[in-house]
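Backbone Fold Data
Goal — fold tokens
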Amino acid sequence: MSFSTLVLVGTCHFIRDMQELPVMATMSTLHFGAQTDEVTSLLRIVNLVRTGEATTRPEIGKVTGLGRGVVTQRIDQAIQYGFLRDSDFAASSGGRAPRTLRFHSEQGVLIICALSAQRIRVGVTDLDGNLQKHAQRKWDIAQGPEKTIKELFKQIDTILDQDTATAVWGVVIGIPGPVDFESGRPAAPPLMPGWNGYDIRTPFEQRFDSPVWVDNDVNLLTLGERARRRDANADLIYCKIGSGIGAGLLSKGSIHRGANGAAGDIGHVRLPDSTTPCRCGKIGCLEAAGGGWALVRDAQQAIDAGSDGPLATLAKKQPVTLELISIAAQAGDPDAIALIQQSASVAGEAVSTLVNLFNPGVIVFGGAIASAGELFLADVRQRIYERSMPLATRDITITLSVNDELEPLHGGVELALEQLFDVTFPRWFADGRPSPERSTVR
């Protein structure tokens, strides 16, 4: 049977079987209803090698239950298609040493763009997710989409090797606000004037002729945390406290985005008895009391009122930021400590509601607030335990992120690989590389 015929016949079987599976199921865990389903077995073998679950022919046969001849045939097809390559010999277990296989990760690159309220970061990785080059610069997201996308292209050009013919296989863009994931359009983001409903995806598709995914920046951080913990089925909340406050929700390893991309947008939850104006136009929002911009506001007021501690001294040399407040708090500044504790108290109260509703196994706090270390963590942990049900916190882990500035880039890689090889692989594998038409939801 020719490979083109195999594709046509196998795809029919594959679509039938996929309709019975959860959308986010990984290829490496697909149930084999029929071992003669050529396409299903081919895709599974590629993903077994790509993820390192099985890298020799005997290992693949053991995991899949396929016979030696079928395994050999599928591997030959995957090599012919460019997905796999032969590699070194593995250790011998008594007979002839088996040759290992590797995923052909250098055949394409991924571009990751991570935007925050005041900074943009871009990175280029291979298809194994290894970061090759990255760049960053200060940037005010309020300058609008046209100027920001133009600047992103400029930054990408500085790190993308223009002298090679390596194809771009995917682009991920993380933004600090809610996103309609299917359309890739921001959904009323409070920090991003002029961005609501803007078509971010199309300029990147036209520029790189590759699939493009746009998501909330906290979701990227959440996926990065999943990968760092190597827990594919985690129930996890990632709460980012930077300029604003947002949360990423991971349920059994899958991001929960909600019907309109607003899941986890806790920064604008109303605090009881609070009348503080928020920059979103409402009053009493969580981030108006505990977000980075609110702490900077309150710190500046304290300095203007005559505070003369470490924070005031540092503020003479540089602008007040959440990072500066965290450093001053670590140095014992009473005003800075009070601000960090204020953020911990209100954030802990809001997150405790999520704990009772969602029952996560892990809560991670990240963003600039992580610089405050144990000073923040002790207070927010105490607040969560006070406000949550005992059963919901019985086995919970509450911790800080690794506070690595490259975290959003690593999370973007996770999103791209998940979409390419777990969600859309059946649509484009016969073409040898992904395309916008076959790899994104329209």
Notes: Residues 231-400 form a domain with the Nucleotidyltransferase; domain 5 fold (CATH 3.30.420.40). The two ends are 34 Å apart (CA to CA).
